[in-house]
Amino acid sequence: MDFNELEAIEGLRWTWNSWPTSKSEVDSLVIPLSILCTPLYQFNELPVLPYDPLLCSSCGAALNPYARVDYQHGLWICPFCDLKNRFPKTYVGVNESNIPAELFPTYSTVEYHLGKKALNLSQSSGFGSVPGFENGSLSRAGSFLSSSTSFSGSDRAGPSLGPGPAFVFVIDACTEEEELTVLKSELLHVIARLPENALVGLVVFDSMVRVYDLGFSESTRVVLFHGGREISSDKTRELLGIHRSTPQLGGIATVKKQSFLLPVSECEFSITNAIEDLQSSPCTVAGGRPLRSTGVAISVAVGLLEGSSVNFASRIMVFTSGPATVGPGLVVDSDFSQAIRTHRDIEKGRDPYYHKSIEFYHRLSRRLCDSSVVLDLFACSLDQVGAAELKVPVEGSGGFMLLAESFDSEQFRKCLGHIFIQDEEGNLNMCFDATIELVATEGVKVRGALGPCTSLGKIGSSVGNVPIGEGSTHVWKLGTLTSKTCIAFIFEVDNKHKVEHKSAFLVQFITKYRYGNMGIRKRVTTVARRWAKNRSPEIVSGFDQEAAASVVARLAIHKSKKNFASEVISWLDQILVRFAAKFGEYVPEDPNSFRLSSNFSLYPQFIYHLRRSQFIDVFNSTPDETAFFQLMLNREGVVGSLLMIQPTLFQYSFEGPPIPVLLDVRSILPDVILLFDSYFHVVIHYGSKIAQWRKLGYDRDPSYESLRKLLEAVQLDAEQLVAERIPVPKLIRCDQHSSQARFLLAKLNPSVTQNSGYAEGSEVIYTDEPSLQEFMEHLQALAVQG
């Protein structure tokens, strides 16, 4: 079974593609029943339908290819709850040769366009006005698809629908002058490219927080907030003078026009002047750290959006170069005598601010979710800035996080520019205010979700009793989505439900979101799998070891929130031994007889590298770096997350085209070049002979044309890897035995160490960690013990 091809059809990866029918059988599988869902997966063909989906009046499932249709009586039977639903009048004329796209068996995913055009149609004459429909009845299936189905990205845009999304730029005024100059230039470039209907706001902070009134073009007017005190949403609105009017009977509340958040068309001059006039103001006390009130600045920005009429599509973008030293969300004291917290400080409870800051940002995260506001963090500093504390609201809102050394870096420029990419119609290629609803067949229950989402606490028949991650719900909130955002859903089987082996079960994902032009869309994905007996060959053949490694990595990260790294590693070892004992073929008490079939053989290797990765082993990472690494793995799909867990290594030599080689220290040879990709770093490693020839300038000698082509080939491939990925990985060029080679050596299997025999000139890793071979031998010895 080719799971990559299956993902290209469904946008899903399953750890198990056939499920047992009882809870005890599920527990014996060791790896949980999970689906990795990429809600906005980019399909080659995706029907975009300009009308609302038909929903079951009982379970809320959308009409799909698995529904049974009674054409004679105008009924469709929901495959999830077996309720009979009547087709509306707009579906008159449906028959076996004339069906809408959502019933086509080849379309497991369809998208409904609920924008202005679709709403007008539904309020007037229904499908009779939709291209491809005539006189209120469906045309033939072929013409229906050709007219109402879109396969191009431009159709996503359509006309702009009123006010656009809102962006509040929160700028750290303690940033050094040179860095601030670069940041201002990039922000002005972004503002110049924004659509005219996009709303913008400006908040600047040091020890105080300044909210700019952009309605004043003649002079600068700001509202000051004290940076040392937490300010409620109501107090923020009161101080900003934002007041909601009392709604009349049957009406809605309105917001008095204010000038802290205005369309670009009305305030481009004033916000441009305000940013250009910003100057570095690193307020310090007796030479200590700059006084930054980051927490209050973000809270005030949230309060501004909460009091505005556009709290359904907005982003708060924080640009900072150091840790918060004032007010709520404090990371470290301003006195340099207090060192910034480490992992050990947090584990031992020696940091006086960490847990208080986490509590503050948890409250802030709930406010962001309630108002559909996204929080982005751009931290450009050689020091930590408090990303570990800010991870909660950034990840919960689906926001973007970047850790870079400087605002004057290619990483920062490319990442900021990528966020503001526009489509062919001039609308921002962004999605806001998303929800994912899950509907499942009776007997299938969801325990929770792991990823950049927040539980909405909506209990239903498909919700499991033991939550995990964001659980106790069948609907989740995401502040924003991209085509690569991936959520892992964990499932369980209900013992009370009796099923027949070989029968099928269904799972449906309904994703609702706003596109950059504020049009509303619903994407519906409906898929089926089969129940199977325990130890059935279908269960074994349907195991996706790559998806399993990705899910287990997310579970390990989830456990690391409350457990020490050693405890998480112990948990990984325990489930791996259980897994090997369950699915291995062996003679009891004979480790040499142990074998794993091809469907399972790579999984132990993935876990070996996961145990050694920066996600679990945090010894050489700061809390900020760990937070960033874990946040990125939690939102990446199988391919990206697997690259983080087990990087790729390619060998370039004179003997032919580049080939993949083992992630092992023995792959380092004097006369080859290695290209290493760990998602966050791309390393070009020159063997000692190649490095020497390059330093002597042989590549510039026409007699050594092959050397020049070899150097150019690896350089071009490395640059392509860097160019195509967001966030931009760091490109490192190093020679064998150089200090920068540590980025490669740290990830290689230490098959040659100071304790093993090795040939003179070969590469050696100085470590006491077991090699992959030793790890597997130990695993086999434990597994065969039963």
TrEMBL record:
GTP-binding is among the record's keywords: no
Membrane topology (UniProt): Peripheral membrane protein
Highest taxon listed in the record's lineage: Eukaryota
Ranges where the Sec23/Sec24 helical domain occurs: 544-641
Domain Sec23/Sec24 trunk positions: 165-412
GO function term, MF aspect, one: GTPase activator activity
Residue ranges of domain Sec23/Sec24 beta-sandwich in the record: 432-532
Main location: membrane
Domain Zinc finger Sec23/Sec24-type, first and last residues per copy: 53-91
Domain Gelsolin-like: 658-744
Keywords: Cytoplasm, Cytoplasmic vesicle, Endoplasmic reticulum, ER-Golgi transport, Golgi apparatus, Membrane, Metal-binding, Protein transport, Transport, Zinc
UniProt xrefs under InterPro entries: ADF-H/Gelsolin-like_dom_sf, Beta-sandwich_Sec23_24, Gelsolin-like_dom, Gelsolin-like_dom_sf, Sec23, Sec23/24_helical_dom, Sec23/24_helical_dom_sf, Sec23/24_trunk_dom
Locations listed in the record: Cytoplasmic vesicle, COPII-coated vesicle membrane; Endoplasmic reticulum membrane; Golgi apparatus membrane
Pfam families: Gelsolin (PF00626), Sec23_BS (PF08033), Sec23_helical (PF04815), Sec23_trunk (PF04811), zf-Sec23_Sec24 (PF04810)
GO cellular component: COPII vesicle coat; endoplasmic reticulum exit site; endoplasmic reticulum membrane; Golgi membrane
GO biological process, one term: intracellular protein transport
CDD domains: Sec23_C (cd11287)
Family as reported in the entry's similarity comment: Belongs to the SEC23/SEC24 family. SEC23 subfamily.
Function: Component of the coat protein complex II (COPII) which promotes the formation of transport vesicles from the endoplasmic reticulum (ER). The coat has two main functions, the physical deformation of the endoplasmic reticulum membrane into vesicles and the selection of cargo molecules.
Name this protein carries in UniProt: Protein transport protein SEC23
